[in-house]
């Protein structure tokens, strides 16, 4: 799996960390970020689909 590097504000990182760990929803930051990116892309695909901007429904724009 490729690795990427991103810069995010400390406040956002602190919010993210509240959901990570033994008491959180995610095992680690990577899992949390992957889930967030996946969810955001799904939402954007739904918006594009509603506006007929998807060519085949798989996230490709026409």
From TrEMBL:
InterPro entries (alphabetical): Arc_rbn_hlx_hlx, Ribbon_hlx_hlx
Some GO term, biological process aspect, for this entry: which one? regulation of DNA-templated transcription
PANTHER family the record matches? BLL4998 PROTEIN (PTHR36215), RIBBON-HELIX-HELIX PROTEIN COPG DOMAIN-CONTAINING PROTEIN (PTHR36215:SF2)
Protein name according to UniProt: Transcriptional regulators containing the CopG/Arc/MetJ DNA-binding domain
| Origin species | Natronococcus occultus SP4
